Amino acid sequence: MELAFVIEKVVLVTVIFLITLGIAAYSTLAERKIAGFIQGRVGPHRAGPSGMFQPLADGGKMFFKEEIIPAESNPWLFIAGPCLALLTASIGSAVIPWGQDLVIGDRVIQLQVADINVGILYIFGIVSLGVYGIMIGGWASNNKYSLMGAIRAASQNISYEIAMGLSLIALLMVTQTLSLRGIAEQQAGFWQNGWFSWNVFCQPLGFLIFLVCSFAECNRTPFDLPESENELVAGYHTEYSGFKLGAFLFSEYINMFVASAVMSTLYFGGYNFPFMNHLGLSDNVVTILGVVFLFAKIFFFIFFFMWIRWTIPRFRYDQLMNLGWKVLIPLSIANIVLTGIWITVKDLM
């Protein structure tokens, strides 16, 4: 393995990790600002100009606050829970293609940490592991409210992962690949061969199901039953404080960022943008513009996550389960059947 290749990957991993942390940190500020705007108030505005240093103040508070471990808890698992949640959230972005290849001298740099041919399976594996951090943290706390929140998280994730997986089967029938880069490349530009090339146009129902399931997988309102402050105090992290509480909260925003990136890649062209191949610009400039457009799509979905939180009330637990098992799963199966019929008719024509 070439040393230059290793250096490229180390630099790329470091840059993506820092960007992920930065976006997650300032998503907390954006959340409070958007909530303030919707509710007719200002939001954080004291720490720095317009509250720009508020995430740093919150992070400092979490870092320096006293670490409390309940006497009756399992101390090792109590610490391992938030660490696992933060780890699984952070490594989900490894297979996301952030742009086309960047050419510097005689080096071709791929803006993707790992281009594996089963990228979607990797994402699903990471999503499935994420709930273990919540379960371990809730159980190790030795608190009935924490345990109840953890059990809710597990049952919610299992329920909505099925519908999410079925919605992606229809997409895979269209794309014929599990590689995220392959799916992104198939959506080149915006208009191709007399048809819209972005997958959202041929899979609108699949995208809607995937979007709803993403809210549930990220424990975001109206599917934030694992936390549900009004019912379970603070859910699975009731006994947590300091840095460990910050890790749980931080992992939620990282999951939201990764989910937005995955939706943008699967259904909205990823780094592709309209008329990208007809601008007459150099390949590197087009690549940089593609990265900018991808992050613009990601920021839109992050805003959408926050907008929904402060607009729609939380479901009851029975409503949550009914929606997952009785509505989304049948709809995703119907979407698979409709996609098969559409592909068959298209091939016959």
Automatic annotation (TrEMBL):
Q: State the reactions this protein catalyses.
A: a quinone + NADH + 5 H(+)(in) = a quinol + NAD(+) + 4 H(+)(out)
One Gene Ontology molecular-function label: quinone binding
Give the record's GO CC terms.
plasma membrane
Q: How does it sit in the membrane?
A: Multi-pass membrane protein
Name the EC number(s): 7.1.1.-
Task: Tell me if rRNA-binding is a UniProt keyword of this record.
Answer: no
Q: Which UniProt keywords apply?
A: Cell membrane, Membrane, NAD, Quinone, Translocase, Transmembrane, Transmembrane helix, Ubiquinone
Which InterPro entries does this entry report, sorted A to Z?
Answer: NADH_UbQ_OxRdtase_su1/FPO, NADH_UbQ_OxRdtase_su1_CS
Which spans are transmembrane here?
Answer: 6-29, 76-99, 119-141, 162-184, 196-216, 253-273, 285-307, 327-345
Annotated localization = Cell membrane; Membrane
Please state what class of enzyme this protein is: translocase
Which example biological process does GO assign this protein? aerobic respiration
Q: In UniProt terms, what function does this protein have?
A: NDH-1 shuttles electrons from NADH, via FMN and iron-sulfur (Fe-S) centers, to quinones in the respiratory chain. The immediate electron acceptor for the enzyme in this species is believed to be ubiquinone. Couples the redox reaction to proton translocation (for every two electrons transferred, four hydrogen ions are translocated across the cytoplasmic membrane), and thus conserves the redox energy in a proton gradient. This subunit may bind ubiquinone.
Subunit text: NDH-1 is composed of 14 different subunits. Subunits NuoA, H, J, K, L, M, N constitute the membrane sector of the complex.
Q: What family does the Swiss-Prot or TrEMBL record give for this protein? A: Belongs to the complex I subunit 1 family.
Q: Which HAMAP family match?
A: NDH1_NuoH
| Protein known as | NADH-quinone oxidoreductase subunit H
